[in-house]
Amino acid sequence: MSNAYKDHLGRPLIAVTGMGVITSLGQGIEDNWKALTSGVSGIHKIERFPTEGLNTRISGTVDFIAVPAQNAVERSYAFARETTLEALAQAGINGDFNGPLFLAAPPIEPEWSARFELADRAGPSVRPGDAYDRFLAAMRERADPVFHEAVMFGSISERLADRFGTRGLPVTLSTACASGATAIQLGVEAIRQGRTDRALTVATDGSVSAEALIRFALLSALSTQNDPPEKASKPFTKDRDGFVIAEGAATLVLESLEAAIARGARVYGILRGCGEKADLFHRTRSSPDGGPAIATIRAALADAGIDESGIGYINAHGTSTPENDKMEYHAMSAVFGDGLPQIAVSSNKSMIGHTLTAAGAVEAVFSLQTILTGTLPPTINYLNPDPAIVLDVVPNVKRDKQVSAVLSNSFGFGGQNASLVMAAEPA
């Protein structure tokens, strides 16, 4: 292999040759990028299920793709299928993919309404009133393959593998909000290790439901600023009060740069580095001192073979929660020091909400778009700056600036942290 195709450690350079994305802003890269850089919000009032009595009544749901309303697995699969179709078309790959599939998918459980409906099928031997036991008994007594697939998030990858002709056992993973970035990291590592020349990396989340909303609300994690919905997500501001739960998906086709060029593929960017660190601080909270996040960013930079001065833009995790935004700021400050105020740092979540399992991949696509177009998407709703967080957040309006390398952060519930470094194609 020519040195032109290798990184600083002699490993294959990883090219991105195809991308696809769906968020509450729309379907496809073109529509999403136009809306995102125009400062448009996809957050809206929830219509999918009743929200009366709930403190949070807004979301970034994807309602323009027709699937059964209460089937989160079917929604997640549909989003993944559509973004993969877009990515493969962009990559110019027809027929079987002939590479491994790494899928980030939400750990979906059946809705309680579905559990009760199925439980009613159980025989009289099950004690009345014990709904969960009746549910299990019904599953044992009367197998229901359709229902079983509807609640098995592992079935998403199997269906994608069959549809797109991937090779080997598809990998399904869930590392909370870092999942999308982790799926990309697995694809990068598979190519670097010489196990394949290409990998299909997909992240999807269609799991917004009343139960999901209630669970996050009980953790005091969601914004309750319902009116107007588009103003609720306000990362790094003084009056931020929680994230806005959302849906979406993204697919990236990864190939060794040598293989991509050999087949005449267009290269949209290079995955230069990946960093991942776990945090043992708490089941849902990240360590307030930012230690694991700091280590994650530094690991990504080291893996990419660049120092802090090489980063021209940071796509922040930026959830709009009081604690997480503060932690991320301290982590970035520890790594970039006095240089941080000169680096633009914006949050896509101010417009699309938090797509949870899909977030890392969705934001990787937008980071690559930043490099390709020379446009920095804004952080909208930035009207009341937090004096304790001194950042150039590209407030409210996009900015034209050519950057050659982007850091994208994904810091998840339970301390699952991942950062990616993406760069322009080598000259």
Which key terms come to mind for this protein?
alpha/beta, two-stranded antiparallel sheet, 13 helices, 33% helix, globular, 18% strand
Explain this structure to me?
The protein has 427 residues and is α/β, with parallel strands linked by helices. It has two domains: 380 residues, 3-Layer(aba) Sandwich (Peroxisomal Thiolase, Chain A, domain 1); 38 residues, no CATH class. It is built from 13 helices and 15 strands. Strands 1, 2, 5, 6, 7, 8, 9, 10, 11, 14 and 15 form an eleven-stranded mixed beta sheet that branches. A hairpin with a 2-residue loop joins strand 1 and strand 2. Helix 3 packs across helix 4 and helix 10 packs across helix 11. The longest helix has 20 residues. The relative contact order is 0.19. InterPro entries: Beta-ketoacyl_synthase, Ketoacyl_synth_AS, Ketoacyl_synth_C, Ketoacyl_synth_N, PKS_Beta-ketoAc_synthase_dom, Thiolase-like. Pfam families: ketoacyl-synt, Ketoacyl-synt_C.
